[in-house]
Amino acid sequence: MSTRNSLLMTLAVTVIGTAGCDLSKMIPPPEARFVSSERADDVSPKAKKFVVSVVDEQFGSPMDLVAWKRLPVDFGEITGKVVSVEVDEDGSSDQLTVELSLEDGAESPGLTSQGIVWTSGEYTQGAIKAELGKKEKVGLVGIQIDSFDVEDGTLILSHKMSSPPKEGDTFAVVGSQFQAGRHLYARHCLHCHGVTGDGNGPTAQYLNPRPRDYRLGVFKFVSVIKQDRATHDDLTRIVKHGVPGTYMPSFMLMDDNEVQAIVEYIRWLAMRGELENQYFIDLETDFSKSNISSRVDSSDDKRAERDLIEEEFKDYITNLFDAKSIYDRVLKPWERSRDEETAIFPELARIEDSIESRARGRKIFMGKAGCATCHGDAGRGNGPKTEQYEPRKSGGGTWDEPGLHDDWGNIVRPRNLTTGIYRGGRRPLDIYRRIAAGISGTPMAGFKATMKDDQIWDLVNYVYSIPFEKPSESSDEKKDDDKEETEDVASSEASPERSAAR
Amino acid sequence: MRLFWCFVFLLVPILAVLSCIYAEDYGLWFPGEAETLLGKQIDDLFYLINIIVTVTFIGTNVGLCYAIWRASRNQEDGVKAWYTHGVHSLEVIWSIVPACILMFISLFQLDVWMQFRVRSNYPEQAKKAPVAEVTARQFEWRIRYPAPGKVLQIQPQPDDIYTVNDLHVPVNQPVMIQLRAQDVQHSFFVPDLRVKQDAIPGQVIPIWFNVLHNGEYPLTCAELCGWGHYKMRGQVVAEPVEDFQAYLKKLQAEQNFDGVSKPETPELAQSGEE
């Protein structure tokens, strides 16, 4: 055996090189530093500091969460039972040996400094409130865990309790899935989407289109209308299938519970970012840098004006700033998309693909729906609007360069429909949703309200046929179609039931 | 001293051989048995070359030791070193013998090479109906199957079935895939099947294999293609032909899902997955 070992010494370099060690498991990713959106630079530094502190109070950071039940996020929990208790006499901690119930394959890294909830024994919620007095955190009442060895089942509590928990007490450690999501996010997503989802990771600058910046709370390829927020299933689908035609790769072979953990973490980041953004928008009207400097410049006594603005700001944040209603307004759609079925489905099954259906779809494409103004007559994504100076959505004149812009301020090209690459998926349902619900954060409008299902399906059938049109044919057809169109438009618009009845 | 140096030089082949002998016990040897017939032939070739190289390696080292030992005896005998242009006949021998060996290897492997690489030698069954088109891109494998009962066309067809990273093929029959690359050079590498083929933008490269057993075989990219190279994890799933057809039908049903007509399983509606 010893000769073998000495032999192995000579191979040591190779062994280390090939076997490797899973560093990501040994070193937890460091605490995230949140990057505020560009709006943060528009408001006064005081206002920025204020907003950051409010959001921190409401969300905490991934390593030190403050909101649990309040947020529509599934943080995941590990439940366990105390098997034996060891009291550290001189120190300030109780060491417990516990028995855990872990879901199959559940990863549970980084559970230290998470809250612990006692579900039986004398430390259930009410009792603990008394124990800790007013030091409890919002949402979850708990004692911090100092260290937690999941393998050994040893739990050390950071707070010395007057009498330690008894054997047989049950508890839950909340946040297991969330922490797993954080670790997986660091491994797979962070280098493009950024540590806290600002879409500006180290590799982001090389990508076009840019990686999604979650901080608007908006995701493009979802199943819901623009006012609603992405559902868990929407994000799962994107992670699993990727976004064809962009750099978002597919994570098809990733375990389902891993994808679930990542999705919940992303939802949390998106909610946090969106809320922060809304606070900035609220303060922007009165306390933007440009506003303050113009007020100061135009007044005679600059110092007095500055003080006045300071006073106003203090007054605003104590009396007028309504964090609660903004919070509710931002979180409501997220809650809705968790609790209710917000995904839109057609009421009518897809109309069978036929020459007539495509022709009707083409008429809509060219005509009243206005598809061609962006996507172009041939569907190449080069409609006239891509050459125009478009007004900014948030006001303030037009964009500096011609073309359509998305809510993140990037130029967005209407999809070139001749390539047959569909970013949000190629199922009829996917194309239907793109047309019916529009694409959130982009100029692509939703037509659910203005078009009937049968018309949308005609349009879907036409969109599917575009990659297979021969260029020469389509231009010939166009001439013929145009003639027909003038005759047919009136009748088809007058009786949409006609096509439905088919 | 003279024995010491001989021993030091002898240590190199001894250690090398010993580590090869023990490597298998420590799981450091070459990957397990090939899962394709052609792969087994490739393995045989590999081991043949390995044996030739081992014999040559040991022989060369023993010769080196002998030379050192011989030369140091000369020194003891008081004989000085002298210049030589070498022995002509010896030079001829060690040129011709390796040349013969190389010639032998190159001729001996031709059969396997032809089967693996020359299109006209591909099995008819595989050539007739390629199973799928695999397009490598940064950083995933996009897969396009023809609709059940149809033949894969070079141009995408309206009824093609698309998926990603998860290539299913029928087991125990020669199957061919068309390999393409969309952006940069990638390499389709399935170690268990002994298949490795570069994917080159602008080219369609057919590759074939005949998987012997049902199973999932990891598919990786073997050409450093960018920062996300490591992400290109995929799998080749070999399954009985009925299961393969059922899988295609399932994919097709998912892909044609319009949100109204009932999918076969409820999850299908949302995730479109499994």
Explain what this protein looks like in three dimensions.
The complex is a heterodimer of chains A (502) and B (274). Chain A has three domains: 77-174, Beta Barrel (Thrombin, subunit H), CATH 2.40.10; 189-339, no CATH class; 355-501, Cytochrome c-like domain (Cytochrome Bc1 Complex, Chain D, domain 2, Orthogonal Bundle). Chain A contains 18 helices and eight strands. Chain A has helices at 2-10, 12-19, 23-26, 45-59, 125-132, 176-188, 190-193, 232-241, 256-287, 289-298, 302-320, 323-339, 355-366, 371-375, 428-437, 453-465, 471-494, 496-501, and strands at 60-61, 64-65, 77-87, 94-101, 116-118, 145-149, 154-157, 170-174. In chain A, the strands form two sheets. Chain A has a six-stranded antiparallel beta sheet, with no helix packed on it. Chain A has a two-stranded antiparallel ribbon with strand order 1-2. The longest helix of chain A is centred in the middle third of the chain and has 32 residues, at 256-287. The radius of gyration of chain A is 29 Å and the shape is globular. The N and C termini of chain A lie far apart (82 Å). With 274 residues, chain B is α+β, with helices and mostly antiparallel strands. Chain B has seven helices and ten strands. In chain B, the strands form two sheets. A five-stranded mixed beta sheet of chain B has the order 3-2-1-5-8. Chain B has a five-stranded mixed beta sheet with strand order 4-10-9-6-7. In chain B, a hairpin with a 2-residue loop joins β1 (132-137) and β2 (140-145). In chain B, α1 runs antiparallel to α2. Chain B is elongated and about 100 Å long. The chains are: A alpha+beta (502), B alpha+beta (274). At the A-B interface, α1, α2, α8, α15 and α16 of A face α1 and β3 of B.
Helix and strand string of chain B, N-terminal first? HHHHHEEEEEEEEEEHH
Strand content of chain A: 5-15%
Strand order of the largest sheet of chain B: 3-2-1-5-8
What is the CATH third-level topology name of the largest domain in chain B?
Immunoglobulin-like
Largest sheet of chain A: 6 strands, antiparallel
Low-confidence spans of chain B: pLDDT under 50, at least 5 residues?
A: 264-274
- The helix/strand class of chain A is alpha+beta
- Total individual domains of chain B: 2
